[in-house]
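Reviewer 2 asked us to include a model.

Predict the structure of this chain.
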Amino acid sequence: MVPDDNARTYAETTAPAQIDGDSPALHSTEEMRRLATPWSVAIAKAKLLASCQLPPGVILDPACGSGTQLAALCTTLQRPGLGVELSGAIAPLAAVNLERCEDSSGGDWSATSRVMWGDGTAAAAIIQAYHKHIDQNPNIALLHVDPARPNDAQQHTLNEMEPRLDELLTSWAPFLSKNPALILDVSPRLLDTQRLEIETIVSSIWGALPMTWQWLTQGRGRIDRLSLWVGAASGTSPSRLVRLTKTGEIHTIEGVSKSLNAQSSTVQIGDHLVIADPCLIASGLGETWKSLFANEGGRWDTVLGRRPIFISPKPPLLVQDELNSHKGSRMIVESMIQSTGEVVATIQILDEESISDITRIAANTGIHSLKLRCSLDPDLQPKLQSKIDREMRAHTPTGSTRSGFIAETSSSHVICKEYD
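Predicted model (structure tokens):
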């Protein structure tokens, strides 16, 4: 399918083009937009491939949807794309989107780019039709696929993905190299056993290949995308956590996933507390992150819930300065910190009656404002925070600008003074 005036009119009538952040104006229905990969995430994934030694050829997406990820890959890598979409109503949107992205990027890769309407597992028929249509025989440089899947990702089987990964990869294997570049997007809530199933499918077709599981987060303590990068697309380690900032910066940690064990003990005044991003725990890279800045003596106090707690005898970022860590390490350390500060007091009871004492203690240590950073009943939390705000205005000495927070450790609640 090559975009023509009819396709462009259909796309604009069916799904008027919209801009998502820094994206070109792309065609997508409301339902597709809700499920599609955001442009910022699609571009970030494409940029991570820039350092990979991909073989020559085209980018293949055999379940391309509206073509957002395929267009981002083609735009970033400046390579033609081959998309396949099962829905005849959506395929024209993908074709027009590819054309739009080439125009906005100033590239020249769309001449041999095509979107085909059909079953993405029919590899032989697709590749034959593609080669005939462009009168060339390019190889496939990268296969990217984001299969449709049921909403309940923790209960469904891999066989319920559409298209099924085993059928899809088996069909395309003859047209890929012995060390293929693959990116397989899956549900962020996929179980460890299901991830092992996917590795087994890949290994059963190509044998031992390097593989990297990638967790991508935009913050808010949530994994936004989970994917397996295989062969020429893999990273340097079996696991990678990517933090994508609001400004488009990409920070990464690579290592080996390990389960973390909390070392619960009493937190002392003068200790330094970090509320870490729970994505570190989900990816199993908490220890790798810790090794970037923490000296001996630091420990994980809690590793469950939305606010994992790390305790260090020194301020974590000061320790990193002493180790002369490079800027990239510092950025990934900072991007995975929700809150951090020095413990200035412990709290035995946290309720409405104790707020006056708590705020007086905080003010006496030079804290100007105090926020709750702990698990509380949703109905109680706003009441406590409102009372804390009122009391702090009455207690805080003039000229104090230091902020603080209340955190929950394994042994008690504590007041922390944030660093300047």
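The domain at 5-255 is CATH 3.40.50.150 (Rossmann fold). The longest strand covers residues 337-347. We have added this to the supplementary material.
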